[in-house]
Amino acid sequence: MQVGNGRWAPSAFTPEVCYTESMKVNKALIWDYDWKPEEYDTEAFRTWYMARVLSNGTSEEVRQFDPSFIASHLEALGIPRSVKRFWEWWLRERGFLHGHPDTSSTGPAQAA
């Protein structure tokens, strides 16, 4: 199925993936960077890729990351504030994050 501008509709898109020892990497999330497959199992890549997944990934991709790993890196990820606030709320609700006053227990903070 094509859309008016000639691009393929997202539902027809099947992302190219690469499997590493620890996770499946969606190449559509890293298209604009030049990571080599041998770098995919490094801590630097996992942290950087986690930021991409938390901002733009699917629930299946998010499930590849342990919530404790997400919580321990959340402050340094450089993700948009609204995305960060959602994940702070999500992690707090599940007991993985404590003491962050940016969000309430009633849900993610709304943009002003």
What does it look like?
By secondary structure, this protein is mostly helical. It has one domain (10-93). The chain is 34% helix and 5% strand. The protein contains four helices and two strands, in the order E-E-H-H-H-H. A two-stranded antiparallel ribbon has the order 1-2. Strand 1 (17-19) and strand 2 (24-26) form a beta hairpin. The longest helix has 14 residues, at 43-56. Residues 1-13 have low confidence and may be disordered.
Terminal CA distance reads 38 Å
Overall 3D geometry?
Answer: globular
**Strand/helix succession:** EEHHHH
The helix/strand class is mainly alpha
Q: How many helix segments? A: 4
* Spatial order of strands in the largest sheet: 1-2
Which whole number gives the mean pLDDT?
80
Instruction: Count the beta strands.
Output: 2
Which residues sit in consecutive blocks of at least 5 with pLDDT less than 50? Answer: 1-13
* Radius of gyration from the alpha-carbon trace, in angstroms: 16 Å
Largest sheet: 2 strands, antiparallel
- The helix content is 25-40%
Number of structurally distinct domains: 1
In percent terms, what proportion of residues is strand? Answer: 5-15%
